[in-house]
Amino acid sequence: MDNRVTDASDEGRVAWIDMAKGICIILVVMMHSTLGTGEAMGGTGFLHTVVAWAKPFRMPDFFLVSGLFLSRVIDRPWRSYLDKKVVHFAYFYVLWVAIQAAFKLPPALLHGDLAAIEPFALAVIEPFGTLWFIYLLPVFFVVTRLLRGLPAPVLLAVGAALETARVHTGWTVPDEFAARWVYFLAGWIFAPAVFSLAQAAARRPLLALAGLVVWFDVETLAVITPVSFLKDTTVSMLPGVSLVLGMAGALAIVTISSLLAASGRAGLLRTCGRHSIVIYLAFFLPMAITRGLIVKSGLALGIGWSSVIVTMVGLAVPLLIHRVVRGTPLRWLFERPAWAKLGQPAPRLVPAE
Fold first, then answer.
1. What rounded mean pLDDT belongs to the chain?
2. Where are the domains of the chain?
3. 102, 139, 158, 272: which is deepest, by most CB within 10 A?
4. For the chain, which ranges sit under pLDDT 50?
5. What secondary structure, in 3-state letters, does the chain show?
6. Structure pTM?
């Protein structure tokens, strides 16, 4: 990722990675849209089943893909590394927290809801709402850079232990770091193997499809099988099992994406992946507005189809906004301006002899 959120051209991009990101961002928007719609309408619909089924691999794949190109930049000078992997995301995080505050705080304060201020006031130490992914990525980049001298098996063992430990402090950063870091590490450490898997899937599509059928069956069985001695728990949630399903699901998405890329189809899916961060930053507002309109309209759409509509609007509107503002004075919504970049250090003056 360069100093913009997205790259307008396809030059230098890997099609299956864009498609993998596209699948992930669709699943993320679907989750928020579906759960929010179900809560607003007081029930569940057919998309709730899809959301529950995708839970084991939805975010693991996002983090694994995020680590795939880390080896290209991890040894760069700190200034360049921090600019691209910390300041870049920090700019968009602060900007979009402010934008969400501008939409959410005034109505809440007009109704005397002072508690609405708290999440925005804590946003520096507690990631705000849907933006936690943007907040956590720089943490992963910095921690991994600091620990890169340790043997890969040690790092993976620590990451796996953290995921299995089910850390629950009530704070997003330590909890999500513990739950997700192992997948980011796997993307970095096993990048050559992941790319080899994608190439093999494209070369042998029938074998890849057979493997996907097995994965689908195992994933489904684990998600629907309850654990009798633990309330509201399925096999997929058990320590160890969740790690295996997360890794397997991430590799399944890689395989699916490679097959789609080889077919030359699914251009819309690739568009979503190419602009996945644009969607992630901006989907909250169209999602909330659409959900509110559907609920207030009283249309008998049902929770399932209402969730589908909210999801589609949540995906489409950010892409439309991005296209409209691109090349205009409002491009700073998705493009980091020069003042928000770490410039090159001034050259050292060498005294003349």
1. 92
2. 15-340
3. 272
4. 1-9, 350-353
5. CCCECCCCCCCCCCHHHHHHHHHHHHHHHHHHHHHHHHHHHCCCCHHHHHHHHHCCCHHHHHHHHHCCCHHHCCCCCHHHHHHHHHHHHHHHHHHHHHHHHHHHHHHHHHCCCHHHHHHHHCCCCCCCHHHHHHHHHHHHHHHHHHCCCCCHHHHHHHHHHHHHHCCCCCCHHHHHHHHHHHHHHHHHHCHHHHHHHHHHHHHCHHHHHHHHHHHHHHHHHHHHCECCCCCCCEHHHCCCHHHHHHHHHHHHHHHHHHHHHHHCCCHHHHHHHHCHHHHHHHCHHHHHHHHHHHHHHCCCCHHHHHHHHHHHHHHHHHHHHHHHHCCCHHHHHCECCHHHCCCCCCCCCCCCC
6. 0.91
